[in-house]
Every structure is written in structure tokens, then in C-alpha cells.
Amino acid sequence: MSQSKGQLKGVCTPVCTVFAEDGGKIDQVAQCRHLDTLLEAGVHIICVCGGTGEFSFLTADERRSLTEHVAKHVDGRAKLIVHASAVMTEETIEYAKHAEGVGADCLLVLPPYFEGPTLEGTFEHYEKVASAVSTEIMAYNIPVHSGIDLEPEFVKRLMAVDNIEYLKDSTGDFIRLQQLIKAGIRVFNGADPLMLYGLMAGASGCFWGTSNAIPKQAVTVFEAVSNGRLDEALALWQRIYAVNDFIWNNPFNPAVKALGNSLGHDLRDCRRPVQPLTTNEIAALEVAIADL
Predict the structure, then answer these.
(1) Which residues contact 59 (CB under 8 A, 6 or more apart)?
(2) Fold (CATH) for 10-229
(3) Phi, psi angle pair for 174, to nearest 5°
(4) CB count, 10 Å around CB of 234?
(5) Is pLDDT of 3 > 60?
(6) Which of the four, 53, 101, 201, 262, has the lowest number of CB atoms within 10 Å?
């Protein structure tokens, strides 16, 4: 699945992990059905074991098994990003090498999170991971969860490291996004309510959690912007904005799955103890869906 360096672009769906009805094992059959829905819609990139894939609620064995299963099923029909993050550098390298072994096109890597290191320690973490594999790496900035903010000057330093080619920015800060793009960094926007405007500003692509539920619309927005059909992109964006806003401002993973389930996808619930949406949240979601 290798490709030219620095050429990933398009809609990346951080694919939901589909669990059995009782929240137990991963339902691999249902997982494949969902992957097929995304691939048939023309999604350019699949990310497995991401935040939207509930990686923090998967065991190490489940992460490896799911990665292998998704890689085999996608089989080159889309690019494949594998989320390889862990708190310890050594464990991150293990996930990274495993992902490389199944043919990942890119590795998504967070800074060491929770009570993590300083920025110098964060740089060392990325440097060691990058030197352990030959697969391209996408650094991941989501300070609300990692506790570390990868600011533009630090990111420029990271991009000088061999193999580190991209940044996923999930700050939801449009000024920051534009600063990164202006600095020549290949950015993937990770904030759902900014998808249209991030692409218009020159982002290479987007991690679009909502695209688990509306993959065709997501791909259409990207292609319309890419081909200069901005009026078409804006008209569609106005129809789908409400669900993107809802997902961003409510419990994210339960909201993505609830939206998908409402639109006929078999995404089921998140693994406990993550709770499904409340009755009031579901009612608000139905209002947002009306725009579709």
C-alpha cells in the first residue's frame, strides 16, 4: 500500500468499531459491512483504532487483531492509516511496527498523554518512533485529551524529522489551522464543524468522524472543493452542518454511532462504561437530522 511521500489527501474516516450487541467482542462481520459502506461511498482513507474507533476501550490484542482485519478487508481500495499511540514510547513502537507489517500507509501518533512529558520529551518520543519504522507518520494534536499542545513552531520542528509528514489538528481553532497551512505543513483538519472551511483554506484532507454516518456527502464536499465548485460545496455543507455541530458539541463517539444508526448504518453502541445518548440528546439529534 505504499505511495509517494507526503501525498495523502482526501476524506479520512476514523472508522467506528462495531461491537456485538452485548458490548462484548468486536463483530467482524458487521465491521466489514460498515467498511464496505465507506468504500462504496468513495472515502479516500480509512483510519483504524482511532479515537472514534474507541481505541482506549480496546485491549492490545484487540487493537492488533482489528488492525489486521481492517487492513485485509480494505486491501488497497483506500489508503490505510493506523493509530499507533500509547503512553510509553516502546509500546508505541510495537504498535507502529505491527501496523507497518500489515501494510499501513501512515501511522497516526499522539504525544504521550495523561501526565505526559515536556515538549522536549514529546520530541524525543516522536523521533524514536520515526526512527523505528519507515512508514510515514502523522502527528496528532488534540490537547483537550492529550494534555499537550503541538503549536506551529514545534510542529515545524517535528516535520524536519524523517518520516514525519503530516499533522492531524483537532483543536477546532480555525486561526491555528490557517497558521499551520501557511507554514507549509500538510494538515488534516480533525474538527467536524470546520470541515468545509479547512478544505477551502488548503488543508490536505480531513479526519471526519461524522463521515461514518454520511460518507457520500463527505466525499462530495471534498470533491466539490477540490474541483472549485464552491457553491455546490457550500449548499451541501449547509444541509449537513447541523449534524456535524451536534456531534462536536455532544459526547462524540455515542453521537457518531447514534447518527449512523438513525441513518440506517449498523454501528450499535459504544463499549461500556461509555453511555449511549440520553433521551434529550437523541431528540436534539433528530432535529439536526431534519436538515439532511
Answers:
(1) none
(2) TIM Barrel (3.20.20)
(3) -70, -30
(4) 16
(5) no
(6) 101
| Cβ atoms within 10 Å, residue 182 | 11
Q: Using alpha carbons, select from 248, 243, 246 the residue that is nearest to residue 213.
A: 243
Where do the domains of the chain lie? 10-229
| C-alpha cell belonging to residue 205 | 484532507
Predicted confidence (pLDDT) per residue in 157-179, tens digit = 999 999 999 999 999 999 999 99
CB 55 within 8 A of CB 63: yes
254: preceding bond cis by omega (within 30 degrees): no
At 232, phi and psi to the nearest 5?
Answer: -65, -45
Which pTM does this prediction carry?
Answer: 0.97
Cα 75–chain centre separation: 19
Amino acid letter, residue 88: M
Asked whether the beta carbons of 268 and 261 are under 8 A apart, the reply is yes
263 bridge partner residues: none
Strand partners for 108: 83, 138
